Structure formats: structure tokens, C-alpha cells
Amino acid sequence: MHRGKGMKFVGDSRVPAVRKPNIPKDYSEYPGKTEVFWPNFLLKEWLVGSVFLVGFLCLTVAHPSPLERIADPTDTTYVPLPDWYFLFLYQLLKYSYASGPYTVVGAIIIPGLAFGALLLAPFLDRGPERRPWKRPVATGMMLLALAAMIYLTWEAVVTHDWKKAAEQGKIRAEVKIDTNAEGYKIAQANTCTSCHGQNLSGGAGPSLIGTGLKPEEIAKIAKEGKGNMPAGVFKGTDEELKKLSEFIAGLKAE
């Protein structure tokens, strides 16, 4: 029994008895609106990628990345700074509720909640609507997270001591320190290396290499202090002070 053209009655007149294979339409009937993937389309992609690559290489040549001195694991005064895309988390870990005894909150719990929310977003927001203003919960959470990241990144940049960072990362001339010298052992005994570094090239305190000071001037600073260095740091004898000042005065960059 036939009903309609090309249709057979199978209990529901809307269901065709013979299904046609799902063959994509031949787009050759639309000249000028398509192009061959190889080599036309792929060649265009390569050309665009080459332009961006050359531009990026030009930027790296014109503005090379700044280099700092060789890392000193004994320098506990060095303040590291992460890359810009981690600055928001770096700033978050400065706050009391996310640092110290609560470091696990800032380092694991808060990022874990954010990652979990992002992972579960397709299951929590299952509405068919795609317009942002029709999805107030998802849009609001996204804008809140974006605002928090921008604010924390800005705070990390503003509150960072860039002058101190440039000074502590400055590349200094290497000097071979005779750690067996009596003057160096006196410096260690009087905790000079805790502020000026194990190689005396600087840390919390300035570098003691190539100061241009005379032994008498160095001895006076060791006794009376200077700048952030308080008086009375040196606890040794006058003879030890003389040996220490002569040792430091002899440290010169090669």
C-alpha cells in the first residue's frame, strides 16, 4: 500500500521505508566558495604561521629576555618572581588566610575548587541557551574569576619591589674566594656571609668585592655599622678585625 511519492506505509507515514545514505552534499556546485585543502588552504595556513613566527623572532632579537646572576641556593634573601600568568596565585599566597599555616588553602584548596568548577561546568550548566545574558550564573562566575585574577595580578606587580629585584639579580663579576684564608673564616665566624653571601658577592647586604675602600674604612664600618648594617655586628678581636678588613680590601673583580 503506497501513500505519497516514494513513501511506504510502515505504521507512521513520516518514516520513509528506504533510508538514503548520509552522503555530504557535493560543494562543487558552489564555485568560488570552497578551495582544495592541499595545497591551497594549507599553504595559506603556513604563510600566516610564518609571518607570526618571523615577527616573534624579531621581538626576541630586539628585546632579549633579561638574565640574572647564577642562582645561589645559600642566598635566603632572594625573592623569586614567577611568570606573569602565575602572578595572581603568587599574590594570593601573600595573604594571611592563604599562607603560613594556611598555605594548603592557597596552594591546593582554592586552585582545586577553581579547577573542579571548570571541570564540572558542562555538567552544572546544561541549558540550551548560549547567550551570556541568558546564563547569569555561569557568566557571573566567569566574570568574578576574571576580575579576581586581574586584580591579584595587578596587586602583585604594584607591590613587588622592582628596584630590589634588579639589584639582587644583577650579574656581578666572579671572584675566586679562598675559603681557607683566615680572613674568610673570620667573616664566617662573625656571620658576614649570612648577609653578604657565601662568596661575598652580595645578598641581603651589598657586595664586598671591589668596594674600593681602604682596610681602615672597612674596619670602621664593621665596628660602627652603615646603612642597614647595625653597629656591633663584629664580635672579634682587633687583630681579627685587621685581618678581615685587609682580606675584604683585597677582593677585586678579575
UniProtKB/TrEMBL annotation:
It comes from the Bacteria. The keyword Cytoplasm does not apply. Pfam families: Cytochrom_B_C, Cytochrome_CBB3. Residues 27-154 form the Cytochrome b/b6 C-terminal region profile domain. Its main location: membrane. Heme c binds at C192, C195, H196. The main subunits of the menaquinol:cytochrome c complex are a Rieske-type iron-sulfur protein (QcrA), a cytochrome b (QcrB) and a cytochrome c (QcrC). Component of the menaquinol:cytochrome c reductase complex. This is Menaquinol:cytochrome c reductase cytochrome c subunit. It comes from Geobacillus zalihae.
